[in-house]
Design a protein that fits this description.
The protein is mainly beta. Helix content is 7%, strand content 52%. The strands form two sheets. It has an 18-stranded antiparallel β-barrel.
């Protein structure tokens, strides 16, 4: 860690400590407001074993990875005499490291202690129904399929920007602006304005017994690479109880815009996606099974040489759980039916067997993994739509609310598309992780 990075972090936490001390001196019996302070953190350790992730068992490329992520944070909250919050000040540092055997360290997953979040949140600004949050922060919206700060990877996405939040009754709406923070191993993490997310995310739910309806308009500008991207995403989501304890969750986004740096090389974006999830709990049956049936589809490009780009891109989505355990897929040029059941033998122990199958939505486009990297590409000749299926098991045990254990296994059965594009041997994945919260 560089001296510059260390000085910035020490300065920020020092400022937080001084602010707490000053606030504590300001509290007195004549002042109806008072400050509350909290220190916290989390340490996560995870082991991963990957076998044959290139689908070619003739190569000795099985590997292990060990990830560690430590988060330390401090919160100062100003409340009124009824303990309603007026101001939050939050600072969080994060240290991420990884080690490996037979593989390179994962890019962007190592960064000695750096600033992850630092923001101020003002509640009911000037007595209104508006809150404001300014600074470096995580963003999570809806089912996290488009905007998320996922926690599976060592690095957790954060943004430099602000949110104006309106809330009254069951109606809420956020006007958001953020610059994506880029991880830099030996330097202080910064955002530079070349990757910006802005837009409006709104919703309404009268109370928990009524349907939740959300709608959004998002604008992504990304000028970091060789192709300038101006992508607009509009969509809606509905979550409701159909009958009894059967729940339905549906989301439909559509994208348009343009990508390219020159008039002749510019392509118009026209893409869509669809998600549906049906779940039912059986609380009267031993182990209280929760059945989950889901289907995800996202469009792929129809003509690589055409004037349009039909590939749906899930912006800053959550990763890992929604599209299988092995991170071979995401909400991009895919058709993915999924069936899973979660059993809860005890309040502390639960496990989930799950089956996912995957087809390309367009065989003229690539197969994309969870990071958006093309795994295989073949845009001509014979090729199958069916990529394969994944069977997985996940086990969870909560020793306490502060000590959480998780482990899992997944096996991938390659399909016709894998065979048509190269080696098609099966792949395996095992992981275990332990989380300490304090």
């Amino acid at each position: 860690m560089t001296k510059r990075k260390l000085m910035i972090l020490v300065g920020l936490f020092g400022f937080m400590t001084r602010a707490m001390a000053f606030a504590g001196q300001a509290d007195n019996k004549d002042n109806p407001t008072h400050w509350q302070f909290k220190l916290g953190g989390e340490d996560r350790l995870r082991y991963e074993y990957r076998y044959n992730f290139d689908f070619n068992k003739s190569k000795k490329d099985d590997s292990t990875q060990l990830f560690q992520r430590l988060k330390l944070n401090a919160t100062a909250s100003l409340t009124d005499e009824y303990l309603n919050k007026k101001v939050d000040i939050f600072v969080e540092g994060m240290d991420i490291r990884d080690g490996s055997y037979r593989s390179k360290a994962v890019s962007g997953q190592t960064d000695p202690l750096d600033l992850h979040q630092a923001y101020v949140r003002l509640y009911h600004l000037l007595g209104s129904d508006f809150d404001v949050r300014l600074g470096r922060q995580e963003l999570n919206y809806g089912a996290k399929r488009l905007i998320a700060s996922p926690t599976w990877s060592n690095a957790i996405r954060s943004w430099d920007g602000g949110i104006v939040h309106y809330h009254k009754g069951g109606l809420y709406s956020d006007i958001l602006y953020g610059q994506n923070v880029q991880y830099q191993d030996k330097e202080f993490n910064i955002s530079d304005g070349h990757e910006v997310l802005s837009g409006i995310y709104s919703g309404y739910q009268k109370d928990h017994a009524y349907p939740l309806i959300e709608w959004y308009f998002l604008n992504q500008d990304d000028t970091r690479g060789v192709s300038n991207i101006h992508r607009y995403t509009a969509g809606a989501r509905m979550k409701m109880t159909v009958t009894g304890n059967i729940k339905l969750d549906v989301e439909v986004p559509y994208q348009w815009g343009r990508t390219g740096t020159t008039p002749s090389g510019t392509k118009q974006i026209k893409a869509y996606a669809f998600h549906a999830n049906l779940s039912k709990g059986f609380d009267t049956i031993p182990w209280k099974p929760l059945l989950n049936l889901a289907y995800d589809e996202a469009s792929g490009n129809k003509d690589p040489n055409g004037k349009h780009n039909n590939t749906f891109v899930p912006l800053y989505q959550t990763v890992h759980a929604p599209y299988g355990l092995m991170d071979f897929f995401r909400w991009e040029n895919v058709r993915n039916p999924e069936l899973g059941v979660t059993f809860s033998p005890t309040p502390k122990f639960r496990f989930t067997p799950q089956m996912d199958s995957f087809w390309l939505q367009s065989k003229y486009d690539s197969w994309y993994n969870s990071s958006g990297t093309a795994v295989r590409t073949k845009t001509s000749g014979d090729r199958n739509y069916y990529v394969g299926s994944e069977a997985s098991w996940r086990f969870y045990y909560d020793f306490s609310k502060n000590i959480l254990f998780e482990t899992g296994y997944a096996h991938f059965f390659p399909g016709g598309y894998v065979k048509d594009t190269g080696a098609d041997d099966a792949a395996d994945f095992i992981y275990s992780q332990l989380i300490f919260k304090f």
